Amino acid sequence: MDEYFQPRSLTEAAHWLAGRPGRMILGGGTSLMPALKKRPPGGPVDLADLSGLKELREQGLKENGDWYLGAGLTLNQLARLERPGQENNPLLKAAALAAGPQIRNQATLGGNLMAPGNTDLAGPLSALGAELLIYGPEGNRRVLFLDFLKALPPRAKCPGPGCGGLKSETCPPLKDLMPYTGSAGIESSGPVAGAALAPGEFIQAVVVPPGSHCWFYARYAAREALDFPLASVSLGIKIKNGRLSDLRLALVGTEGRPRLAETTMKRAIGLAGQDMAEIGDLLKDELASLPGRRPCQEFRHHILLTLAGRLLEEREAACL
Amino acid sequence: MSLDYEIKFSLNGRPAVAVAKAKETLFDLLGRLGLRLRSACDGEGFCGACTILVDGRPVNSCLYPAVRADGRCLRTIEGERPDEENLSPVQKAYLKAGAVQCGFCTPGLIMTSTAFIEENCGRADQVTRREIIEAHQGHLCRCTGYKQIIEAVELALKG
């Protein structure tokens, strides 16, 4: 028998989820509901609706400067958050551009991170150095978002319509949906031990560390709305005494998950303000050195370099 | 098989009680209750044709878990007509602007436009065309090219 459960506390949710394999979390439902419809007949579907838990809807700055964002915040709630001095925060901008207005009214931050093939918020969170606050039967723990991504199993590819086509080449395969969406328990045997969800665990919140970067975000999708981005760039710049003291640069589109452009981030340190366009050249070198032959790789790299170039131009007006 | 969950909600201003299944969508539940919404919908949230208002906000009913409607206020296209003889101001504006052709997208668009106009009623003269476009980006219309739809919303905003 399919079951729907509304836990009254985080602890109750964690124990219920751990109680039987295959139990799933119902976030906004925008990925899960259509997937359940297409699911071949099989065992029961047990859903835990966490929308009633206040810890998942809270947001705000903590005493240490961390920015706490409950996993149950909808994308529209995220998009409308005001954070003085962070008007270009890539997470808020990406949330405002994700999907379409109706979906943003329903889809949640946590659900967005768990849905297979989703490329909206992962890039910005990687650039921001965000952590996930994960709650489980043993309490909560924090995991670096990038480590969490690495611990996810590889996602299946579906035939794409080609470069610049209407859909992202990564589509949500039904067979992969269950572990992503719920708490079936991906064993912590990935590249980063302990970064994956254990049985009963779920994302409680995203925690963004304090920082004084000047942020920018740009994305490319076949249409302005309703499509996942084929590529996106999240750029954070910190200037001290007229020189670049820190660079955060996350790319979506080079592979199945976001990539930090680590070589560029290292080599750009110390660049003078007027030489900041050189970041584009460094990025070009880094992209050229990437292994693998992803479909449309040349096209994606071209888009990434174009987006990065535009952001660096914006930076001249906004950052210095 | 699924357990049954009794839910109580307001449907177009009237109290309603229904039995929902765990993985049922609001689109399917409202269909069982006799509301047509759209005879067809892509079921994945891309077309926007099945858009309804939940607590005043547009959502795709094909993606919305029915059980979660418990305690909420639902508005559908069926409730927008004040009586048999009349149309709502938004519906009239759509007709006047020529924003209705095949009609597939119209019910959902009317609901989104209604929510948008109500949300902006205090600043109708300041609303930009860009805001109208962004608010309606969750809908696909293959007939009108969207121009008439935008004009209809502008007309409705003017009252």
Distance between the termini of chain B: 49 Å
Structural class of chain B: alpha+beta
Helical proportion of chain B, percent range: 25-40%
Q: Widest sheet of chain B: strand order?
A: 2-1-5-3-4
Report the order of strands and helices of chain B.
EEHEEEHHHH
* Assembly classification: heterodimer
Helix/strand-derived category of chain A reads alpha+beta
Secondary structure tally, helices of chain A: 12
User: What is the largest interface, and how many residues per chain?
Assistant: A-B, 28 and 31 residues
Please report the number of helical segments of chain B. Answer: 5
Question: What Rg of chain A, in angstroms, do the CA atoms define?
Answer: 20 Å
Helical fraction of chain A equals 25-40%
Shape of chain B: globular
- Strand portion of chain A: 15-25%
- Stretches of chain B where pLDDT is under 50 for at least 5 consecutive residues are none
Give the mean pLDDT of chain B: 92
Query: Beta-sheet strand percentage of chain B?
Result: 15-25%
Q: Major sheet of chain A: size, sense and barrel closure?
A: 5 strands, antiparallel
| Poorly predicted runs of chain A | 156-162, 164-190
Major pleated sheet of chain B: 5 strands, mixed
Mind telling me the C-alpha Rg of chain B? 16 Å
